[in-house]
Amino acid sequence: MTLPELLIKKREYLLGRWEDIILGEYAKDTFRIFKKQKDPFANPVGHKIRIGMAELYDLLCDESDTEVATPGLEDLLRVRAVQPIAASTAISFVFDLKTLVAEQCEKEGMDRLYKEFLAFCARVDAAALAMFDIFSNCRQTVYQIRMNEFKTGRHIITDSARCSSQIMKEDMADSIRNRTTNAQPNEER
Amino acid sequence: MAIPKVEDLRAAVATEPNMFTGAIPRKDWQDTFTEFKEGNFAYPAKPEMVEYHHFPNPRIWSPDQDDWKLPDGWEDIILNGLRERLDKFRSLKVFMDICVRCGACADKCHFFLGTGDPKNMPVLRAELLRSVYRNEFTVGRKLLGKMQGNRPMTVKVLKEWFMYSYQCTECRRCSVFCPYGIDTAEITMMMRELLHLVGVGINWILEPAANSNRTGNHMGLQPHTFKDNIGYLVDDVKEITGVDVHPTFNRKGAEILFITPSADVFAEPGIYTFMGYLLLFEHIGLDYTLSTYASEGGNFGLFTSNEMMKKLNAKMYAEAKRLGVKWILGGECGHMWRVIHQYMDTMNGPADFMEVPKSPITGTVFENARSTKMVHISEFTADLIKHGKLKLDPKRNAHRVPTFHDSCNPARAMGLMDEPRYILDNVVPKWHEMNENCIREKTYCCGSGTGLNTGEIMELRMRAGLPRANAVQDVNQRFGVNALATVCAIDRATLSTLMEYWLPNTSDDPSRATDVDVIGLSELVGNALVMDGEIENREQGLRFEELITTETEG
Fold first, then answer.
1. Which of A14, A115, B325, B461 has a 20 to 30 A CA-CA distance from A79?
2. A21 in a domain, yes or no?
3. A176 belongs to a structural domain
4. Which positions ≥6 away from B348 have C-beta within 8 Å?
5. Cα–Cα–Cα angle for B369, B419, B527, nearest 5°?
């Protein structure tokens, strides 16, 4: 059996154990609910973790697949990006898969497949880097939405004008400013 | 050389993964205490705001410091406050006693589902107060003591109350599933009230409440500013539709007083909703006036104390009396309607100086508002449509494929569920419902209500709003939904931000922040209204967006 064959054969088992590692970050009662409840609307975090991990698993198994940013994985990282956890913790679950796969290889007596295993690890590492980019983008979005809230006057106390035409003028001015800035980055001081 | 394990390496760069309480709760809930860190609490009230309300213990303090500078004898102040409220509110006493911990509410709270923190299970959040109640006020307390989970009032308990009573938006979804009908929101309200007795509150609530006291609205806008900005909106309505609209202010003898959240007058996207109101009232020739004194529908008193709620609510009725109007029409607001339908009547009602609301256009008598004399804009509009009094062209909204978000308070506190849907049926070519467990009385909160719509807890808000965003994402993917219609000012503001995070823009248009725009129902009405004297082949919507005027498929 080759490693890719093993990964396909053990997909459900490995995914289940991998999922437990992330869900294990939560309290015991939470773990039980997030693990058991399969309705995506009654358990959005558990659902997004499940879908995101499955998509990541499949792309790690498929050597022809190089697109890490699948919708499900992006959603999973979007969940992680607003949890009060360190960035390293948010991403680290991907490395746990190496350990799980190594265990399986050993169990199946597949020690000879170290080259295949190294290739798999390299894919995990590459995915981790891509995931870090996705995670950073999510964090950027958090900063951006704070700014957007401020700009739209959704929360501020102000006595400046807020009306459709004013907003349209501001948007136009913003986009002109952005274009100018992008066109002449060197002139910025 | 030994190869370090991944876990060891991780420990070297990050502290232990910490959930909202600061650490993974491995211990019993009573032994796990809150840890305040920048980002997990809303900023405390400024001393001048506390003073303004004549609340006790104004001071500079911060939840992340050990010493909260509580007044001497604070434990007695809290316990006496609790005793007083148990005597005053029979409901509180019942809610304290009857919970059997069946757990039906446990996984129904959006804060629990988003944070995974067990203390956000409504049953456990309430237990934070119940444990103290049992210890002090029940017969079996001496006998059962800690075995029953009873505990004395300590600083740690007080800090827990602050953490979790401000991780509850009083949305009451949990109450829908409670077999005893326990209103957990009222338990949160009591915890917040008790905390105010020792000077523990947040600025985001006390400042708008102070503004509302002073100038009549949360924003602190003075009458001339309020009037001026509506003037700008009138100009834009003219430019977009070619129609002159004629709002009046503080006009005695008007038939109807129109009150809406001040966010409709000043904040985006509420202003577009306001333009919709202006067009609607012009369309039917309504005899109405706005007030620069009662210039706020929202009532942050609901999030502070029952006395504050009563005071802010009274202002609307005092103004109705002063102007001599027959009844009040209320705009798209959330908690204003909870105050009106559940509390107004026993606080300031019945408003017998007014008449039972009767639509001057259709003659419909709004029996449901017989005592409060206040009618919801969606009830009013749906009635107009039902009687064929509005000339509507839904195709003008063909660029919008909405879904409808039931705002917690109108849905669960006043039963407003069918009217907005009936309006949608008539003002857009097509719209789609979200999953049935996320709508109507089971609707999920926006995650930022009850004064939690503040920037310093943005991540928390995004976590709490996930269950709602997740359901929107589903209809976005399945049906191409690109608009989220709603009837609440806080929703319009906070859902916009929520959509920007969970459903970021995937289109080619860089000026868009999200794939799903949040939109007030009355804006859709305003766009669909065919006005007398309007520009021929009107091309722009109320946001100056391009309208689709030709026939579309489907």
1. A14
2. yes
3. no
4. B310, B313, B314, B317
5. 115
Question: Which DSSP string corresponds to B202-225?
Answer: BHHHHHHHHHHHHHSSTT---HHH
Asked whether the beta carbons of residue B271 and residue A166 sit closer than 8 angstroms, the reply is no
In which domain, by residue range, is A80 found?
A: 3-149
B324 touches B373 (CB < 8 A): no
* Two tokens, residue B142: 């001496």
B interface test, pick of A93, A98, A136, A155 with most B CB neighbours within 10 Å: A155
Considering only CB atoms, B511 lies closest to which of A25, A28, A175, namely: A175
Q: Give the start-to-end residue ranges of the domains of chain B.
A: 15-201, 208-528
User: Could you tell me if residue A165 is inside a domain?
Assistant: no
Per the structure, the count of domains in chain A is: 1
Residues of A in contact with B496 (CB under 8 A): 148, 152, 154
Is the pLDDT reported for residue A157 higher than 70?
no
Q: Which two tokens stand for residue B551?
A: 């026939």
pLDDT (0 to 100) of residue B395: 95
Instruction: Note the pLDDT of residue A167.
Output: 66
Q: Tell whether A11 is covered by a domain.
A: yes
Higher model confidence: residue A183 or residue A138? Answer: A138
In Å, what is the CA distance from B322 to each residue of A130, A153, B253, B319, B354? 64, 32, 10, 5, 11
**The pLDDT of residue A151 is above 80:** no
* Cross-chain CB nearest to A154 (options B228, B239, B267): B267
Tell if the CB–CB gap between B235 and A163 is shorter than 8 Å.
yes
